[in-house]
TrEMBL record:
Keywords from the UniProt entry: Membrane, Transmembrane, Transmembrane helix
Ranges annotated as spanning the membrane: 28-46, 52-69, 95-115, 127-146, 187-210, 222-246
Lineage: Bacteria, Bacillati, Actinomycetota, Actinomycetes, Kitasatosporales
Name the record gives this protein: Uncharacterized protein
Length: 251
């Protein structure tokens, strides 16, 4: 919990500043927020030198991002930096790159002992290995299953007489997107393997709403329905197999 609190606590102000574009608009506030919120994050662990080095790496990263994103319209930090590097437009970016690299180095040194234990536990975790392997099989192996299930529908569309209906159906089928299918099966497997079929149902509902405009095209609707059912079957089979393999109740 200590490592997670520090990691999330130091990441949060950086993410906020990045989303609000404060690296360029409010550099002083960026550093102040990183320091203040970072101090709050490490407060219970101030006796540990690693907490302070983690805070230092976050501040260095904030300074580096400010310098990297700095433009002529960026407000001054309130202090100047004298550098032996040649003067010019690239000096700030060079200093920013150095600050980022230094922040990464300090952060890596700080987190190494905790991270090494964490990754060692991950490598030895049989449940994680089974679930990850089952996820890959469901996502990519399920793709072959979906293709086999939908090929007859595509052939049926190809046999249609030339005309607007055929062209519309083919255009909609081609717009389906392989990446969407991979993402869909991945989400379905994750939710089903986690024992949350309700969340999986929400994924299907969202896809149904997205595909609602094609309901009037019979062949396209048949294609998407067949593909969705095949994805559900692939994700369900692998989630059941994975849960059974690790000793969890089968849905």
């Amino acid at each position: 919990m200590e490592a997670v609190r520090v990691l999330f606590g130091l990441s949060a102000p950086l993410v906020v500043c990045w989303e609000r574009r404060w690296f360029t608009a409010r550099p002083g506030l960026t550093i102040l927020l990183t320091l203040a919120y970072g101090a709050y994050a490490i407060a219970p662990y101030i006796d540990d030198v690693r907490s302070w080095s983690a805070l230092a790496s976050a501040v260095l990263l904030a300074v580096g991002c400010i310098l990297l994103y700095r433009s002529s319209s960026t407000p001054a930090l309130g202090f100047s930096i004298t550098s032996p590097l040649p003067t010019g437009l690239s000096v700030g970016k060079r200093l920013g790159a150095v600050a980022v690299l230094l922040a990464v180095s300090v952060g890596t040194w700080t987190a190494w002992s905790t991270a090494s234990v964490f990754f060692d536990q991950l490598l030895r975790n049989d449940t994680l290995a089974v679930m990850l392997s089952a996820l890959l099989i469901a996502v990519f192996g399920g793709g072959a299953f979906v293709k086999a299930a939908t090929d007859p529908v595509v052939e049926e569309v190809d046999r249609l007489p030339s005309g607007p209906n055929k062209e519309t159906a083919l255009a909609l089928i081609r717009s389906g997107g392989r990446a969407i299918g991979l993402f869909e099966r991945g989400l379905l497997f994750i939710f089903l393997a986690a024992g949350q079929p309700e969340a999986a149902a929400l994924v299907l509902a969202a896809k149904a709403l997205a595909r609602a405009p094609v309901d009037h095209v019979n062949q396209a609707s048949k294609y998407f329905l067949t593909g969705t059912l095949a994805s559900v079957i692939a994700a369900w089979i692998m989630s059941v197999a994975a849960r059974a393999a690790v000793g969890l109740p089968i849905l």
